[in-house]
């Protein structure tokens, strides 16, 4: 069986985005309405600037007692997020997520066009298990070389 690509496995095909001057409150509302765990931050007609995730809202806003209505997404976003090409295999994307602690990866084509966001929820258990095995193998190799 051929392994799926990140683009093939995306559950949601629309791109949820906001301008950098949007408030954190707006981001939370947009994410809630769309039942989505992240929103891309894009300047009008410009490139991808960052991503705001549920975890960002918790650790960078709530835990620091910032006012969601007065805090902009550009203040709390992850800048220049790691992006992956649409043809990347799911297990490889999950491996990146495991190693770097991500749950969301924007998918962009060779022309920097944003195609969507791959979420760890989009991976099947088989692919997650493959990625975990690869991560454990990498750890063993690093320990042996270390």
Please characterize this protein's 3D structure.
It is a single chain. The chain has 146 residues and is α+β, with helices and mostly antiparallel strands. Helices cover 41% and strands 18% of the residues. The strands form two sheets. A four-stranded mixed β-sheet has the order 1-2-3-4. A hairpin with a 5-residue loop joins β5 (104-108) and β6. The radius of gyration is 16 Å and the shape is globular. The termini are far apart.
Short description:
The protein is an alpha+beta fold.
In terms of topology, how is this protein built?
Layout: H1 6-9, E1 17-18, H2 24-34, E2 38-42, E3 48-53, H3 54-62, H4 73-76, E4 78-79, H5 90-100, E5 104-108, E6 114-119, H6 125-145
Parallel strand pairs: 1-2
Antiparallel strand pairs: 2-3, 3-4, 5-6
Helix pairs in contact: 5-6
Helical percent range? 40-55%
CATH topology: CBS-domain
Enumerate how many helices there are, as a single number.
6
Give the averaged pLDDT, no decimals.
Answer: 90
Number of strands: 6
Describe the strand arrangement of the main beta sheet, using strand numbers.
1-2-3-4
Tell me the structural class.
alpha+beta
What is the N-to-C succession of helices and strands? HEHEEHHEHEEH
Q: How many domains, as an integer?
A: 1
The CATH superfamily title: CBS-domain
Q: In terms of per-residue confidence, which ranges show pLDDT below 50 for 5 or more consecutive residues?
A: none
Query: What is the rounded Rg?
Result: 16 Å
Apparent shape: globular
Beta content comes to 15-25%
CA(first)-CA(last) distance: 36 Å
For the biggest sheet, the summary is:
4 strands, mixed
Q: Return the CATH architecture.
A: Roll
The CATH class label is Alpha Beta
